Amino acid sequence: AVVSTQSTGDGLISLGSAHMVDEVDTTPWMGRLRELFLDVQHTNLKLVCICFSHQLINMVYGGSVGAGDAGFVFGADDIQIDLPAVRGHHQQGSLFQKY
Fold it and tell me: What is the C-alpha to C-alpha distance for residues 95 and 41, in angstroms, rounded to an integer?
């Protein structure tokens, strides 16, 4: 395990990357990050994912990631989250139940 239930601290912040999340199977460090995201759900640590990392954690927990209609967007942008769909896809003990 990358993170154990004995890990100390309040949380983890995972940032962006020049890589794309679809490279996860060919880029070794992404596999380790994916393992970390899976391990965090068994701890009390909070997790903040930004840019690349929020896309990867979405994939790790069964979501899909794809190019937006507007292409690459830099800066702030409006998004819509279908909360009933998100709540309907959580698993017992998942990160979704912590927040």
Answer: 5
pLDDT band at 99 (very low <50, low <70, confident <90, very high): very low
Query: CA–CA separation, 96 vs 89, rounded Å?
Result: 9
Helix (H, G, I), strand (E, B) or coil at 99: coil
Which of 10-14, 28-32, 39-43, 68-72 is the least confident region? 68-72
Count Cα neighbours of 5 within 13 Å in the Cβ-side half-sphere: 1
Q: How far apart are CA 58 and CA 40, in angstroms?
A: 14
What are the C-alpha distances in Å from 54 to residues 15, 16, 64?
8, 9, 11
Does the global pTM surpass 0.90? Answer: no
CA distance 73 to 86: 23
The per-residue pLDDT for 31 is 86
48 forms beta bridges with 13
